[in-house]
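Appendix B, Record 12. Input sequence as logged:
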Amino acid sequence: MADLDFFFDPVCPWAWITSRWVVETQQLRDYDINWRFISLAVINEQLVADWYTPEYRAGHVRGLQALRVADALRLTDGNEAVGRFYTAVGTAIHTQRRAAEMQADASAFMRSVLTQAGCDPDVESAMGDESHDEHLRGETALAFERTGKGVGTPILTFAPGTDREGSFFGPVISTIPRGEEALRLWDAVQTLATSGVAELKRSNRSRPIFD
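Logged structural output:
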């Protein structure tokens, strides 16, 4: 059984930073991470707001397409392949700042990312396969069942499937903790998540730093 369920959308910069903290901790403590899905396109599909521009929505659609690829990998190659894919696509979008390339030629971008992840580049065809959407919607609904609505990505569930299970939106962090700092934050968040705390929040954020 996994130590953590991590629900992500590949295009979310905050989920990406949190995921790199999770991977850092996983490497230091040999934790088992179950990579799961939450779609910003699904969350915001009925949203009508001035800030939600066509360009913003298009980015979320690209995230949905990437999640279809991730789900295809889940079905054929399992969780470990999903983790490799998320590392490759997140590095390309956020660290290497190739989001414009993804928008301009999503197919070529995805084949490049899949190759980088050591996966079959032909899985790129899943980007347009809407048969994956039922599972992606189910995962998104499950994430919200665990936290309540009105939150975003990422959503983390500590000790899933146990009597200590606890879920949070976040932590939303602007830099990636490393080493002992990563472990201290993990212990603090895990303690809060599994001790009945319902909400801990503030609004001000620094700009995300991906390296």
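The chain has eight helices and four strands.
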